[in-house]
Amino acid sequence: MISLGLLTLRQRRFAVAAITAIAALASVVIVVLNHMVAATPPDLVGARPWLAYGDLTWEVLYFPTGFGALVAVFVGAPLVSREYENRTHVLAWSQDVRPRRWLAGHVLFLAGLAVLLSVLLSLLTIDLLGTLEHVLGARYPIDPFDAESFDASVPVMLGHTVFGFALGLAFSVLTRNTLLAMGLTLVGFVGTRMFAAVVLREHYLPPIRTWRADSPEPYIPQVPADGRRVDSGVEFVNGVRGHFAEFQTADRLGTFQLIETGLFLLVAAGLLGFAFWWVGRLRRI
């Protein structure tokens, strides 16, 4: 297996160098920005445009998500298809190295490297989020369920990266066409991530439901400031008009992140299983 790892490094040296360089550059940007945010006096926060929503700081928080997409499209998707297009699979899958053994060496090395780099980016992003929360305080509260904070979790980042790699690999062995595999992987990765974030994430656990009767007093929000609203509206209970709210609370965040990680790892395991099963069926010529 060590020899296969060295072979993988030699064959995939450009991909390894590229994702390592991208992760290193992203890490430097996050660290530098973290120091800039930390050095900003509280009374100047409003005068720094890179501290506002939608500007540089918040775009940087999406670096881990972007890195997962790069791994999926440029590492997982070309892995087998490029061997077929270049006809190098005939030599690579010799009598001494069976296709599944060859694939296992590549998967362990490349996916392992991608996971290590993604964990590094996740830890740096979490540190930046902590600095932002300290500097911005209550003026610019960070929603823990928003993608930039939710996805920065180490388990979630790991699950997304492994899923992306497995998705790209599955399309690679299925299509044996690099451009087609890359396109399908990008659409599948982005679509699945958006579906999880927009549709599934709020419902990993049944939401908390509250109801408050209407009164002449000013309306008091039922959803906590750090919670995520799922639904709300007017509702009559025993003929009394009032407002209901369904929401998730911040103390559930860790549980939600573990649930999402488990879901993505489960799907990734299925995709990897399919890829290994299918590659054993491929013709070597």
Summary, kept brief:
The protein is mainly alpha-helical and 285 residues long. 64% of the residues lie in helices and 9% in strands. It is built from eleven helices and three strands.
Question: Can you put this structure into words, describing what you see?
Answer:
The protein is mainly alpha-helical and 285 residues long. The protein has one domain. Helix content is 64%, strand content 9%.
Number of strands: 3
Order of helices and strands: HHHHHHHHHHEEEH
Can you count the helices? 11
Low-confidence stretches: none
User: What portion of the residues fall into strands of 2 or more residues?
Assistant: 5-15%
Intertermini distance: 25 Å
- Mind summarizing the main beta sheet? 3 strands, antiparallel
The average pLDDT is 83
Number of self-contained structural domains: 1
Helix proportion range? 55-70%
Give me the side-by-side strand order of the main sheet.
1-3-2
Radius of gyration: 23 Å
- Estimate the global geometry from the Cα principal axes: flat
Structural class: mainly alpha
Keywords: Membrane, Transmembrane, Transmembrane helix
Protein name: Transmembrane transport protein
Organism: Kibdelosporangium persicum
